[in-house]
């Protein structure tokens, strides 16, 4: 059962922080933030947009710095902000590096024996959190969901959208996503660490560039990245690989001149991403 930790008024709605014991994350305590617009009530359920944050982040980064609430309030959209990994699993080596382990769950379900009991962020985001929110009686319409994210969270948003066999999400968008993780250092490190089958196991499940190749149905995807993003320049993001694989599949890829990887970049284009999702969520 979710316990309310705090609530703050913002743009006429409420930003609420909850905590609960997560079965998907091995019984560890988990936090999430949920923005409920003023349109949400005991008689009116609102659509849900899930935001996935990047490496080293928590459930607070997007809520505090993303700049999403004014547009979401105007459109009547709720926003869910999950954490980025389990906290306190105690797996040997999980805190050795900033880009693996705590704060770096990569939105997958681990199969390597030491990580499998705890690192199940895919299940946590797609199944567990909706169940917890519904059980709490919060006014969310789970038949209308979309997903977006930043960096590692952009990878998560794209892969959870593209891999869903139930079409859980109507649209996906991303800020500076890790588009082809099999071919970058961040992804290779995550996949060889979390997955028993390593990169080969990830190929059909957790790489957006591979997933879009096999997607025959129409997609609704928007991606922004900055041309001055150091991680883009280092070859961690590889948006060109994704857009080449997605040719003719309704993907909007925008290179934003001079922008970097920060939340200054995200907050600049946040309203456009909210409006993009509103087209699919606000019937």
TrEMBL record:
<dbReference type="InterPro" id="IPR014186">
    <property type="entry name" value="S-formylglutathione_hydrol"/>
</dbReference>
<dbReference type="InterPro" id="IPR029058">
    <property type="entry name" value="AB_hydrolase_fold"/>
</dbReference>
<comment type="similarity">
    <text>Belongs to the esterase D family.</text>
</comment>
<comment type="function">
    <text>Serine hydrolase involved in the detoxification of formaldehyde.</text>
</comment>
<keyword id="KW-0378">Hydrolase</keyword>
<dbReference type="Pfam" id="PF00756">
    <property type="entry name" value="Esterase"/>
</dbReference>
<keyword id="KW-0963">Cytoplasm</keyword>
<dbReference type="InterPro" id="IPR000801">
    <property type="entry name" value="Esterase-like"/>
</dbReference>
<protein>
    <recommendedName>
        <fullName>S-formylglutathione hydrolase</fullName>
        <ecNumber>3.1.2.12</ecNumber>
    </recommendedName>
</protein>
<keyword id="KW-0719">Serine esterase</keyword>
């Amino acid at each position: 059962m979710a316990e309310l930790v705090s609530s703050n008024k913002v743009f006429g709605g409420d930003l609420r922080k909850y905590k609960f014991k997560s079965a998907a994350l091995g019984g560890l305590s988990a936090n999430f933030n949920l923005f409920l617009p003023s349109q949400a009530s005991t008689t009116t359920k609102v659509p849900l947009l899930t935001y996935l944050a990047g490496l080293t982040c928590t459930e607070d980064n997007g809520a505090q710095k993303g700049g999403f609430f004014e547009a979401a309030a105007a459109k009547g959209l709720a926003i869910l902000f999950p954490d980025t990994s389990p906290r306190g699993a105690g797996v040997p080596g999980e805190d050795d590096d900033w880009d693996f382990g705590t704060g770096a769950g990569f939105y997958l379900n681990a199969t390597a024996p030491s990580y499998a009991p705890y690192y199940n962020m895919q299940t946590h985001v797609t199944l567990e959190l909706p169940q917890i929110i519904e059980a709490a009686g919060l006014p969310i319409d789970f038949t209308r969901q979309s997903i977006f994210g930043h960096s590692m969270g952009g990878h998560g948003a794209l892969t959870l959208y593209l891999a869903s066999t139930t079409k859980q999400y109507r649209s996906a968008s991303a800020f500076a996503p890790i588009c082809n993780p099999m071919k970058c250092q961040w992804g290779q490190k995550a996949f060889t660490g979390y997955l028993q089958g390593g990169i080969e196991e990830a190929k059909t499940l957790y790489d957006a560039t591979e997933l879009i190749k096999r997607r025959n149905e129409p997609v609704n995807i928007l991606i922004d990245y900055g041309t001055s993003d150091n991680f883009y320049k280092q070859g961690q993001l590889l948006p060109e690989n994704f857009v080449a694989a997605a040719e003719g599949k309704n993907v909007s890829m925008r290179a934003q001149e001079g922008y970097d990887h920060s939340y200054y970049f995200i907050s600049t284009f946040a309203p456009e991403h909210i409006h993009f999702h509103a087209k699919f969520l606000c019937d």
